[in-house]
Amino acid sequence: MEGTDMSRDRIEKLGTLFLAVFSTALAAQLVSTGILAAPIQWIGALTAVLGSITIAVLVRLWPQPARADIQDS
Questions:
Q1: Distance CA 58, CA 54 (A)
Q2: How far apart are CA 70 and CA 37, in angstroms?
Q3: pLDDT level of residue 3 (50, 70, 90 thresholds)
Q4: What is the number of structural domains in the chain?
Q5: How many CA atoms lie within 13 A of 33 on its CB side?
Q6: Is 14 a domain residue?
Q7: Which terminus of the chain has fewer CB atoms gathered within 10 Å of its CB, N or C?
Q8: Residue 48 falls within a domain, yes or no?
Q9: pLDDT tier at 4 (50, 70, 90 boundaries)?
Q10: Does residue 68 lie within any of the structural domains?
């Protein structure tokens, strides 16, 4: 069971890292090409970046579920 928890934790961390990096890179690329000309588009891009960073932080800080210890008889 320990190996499963370790791999799940690693997948969660890598997934949230990918989400934050991808949304930031996408917003930066759109800004550099001039697609985000209207202020509402800037707000949408900023919201996407901040949302993905918030999710990444929440996944790392969210408490793990409590588990009962298995006692040997």
A1: 6
A2: 59
A3: low
A4: 1
A5: 6
A6: yes
A7: C
A8: yes
A9: low
A10: no
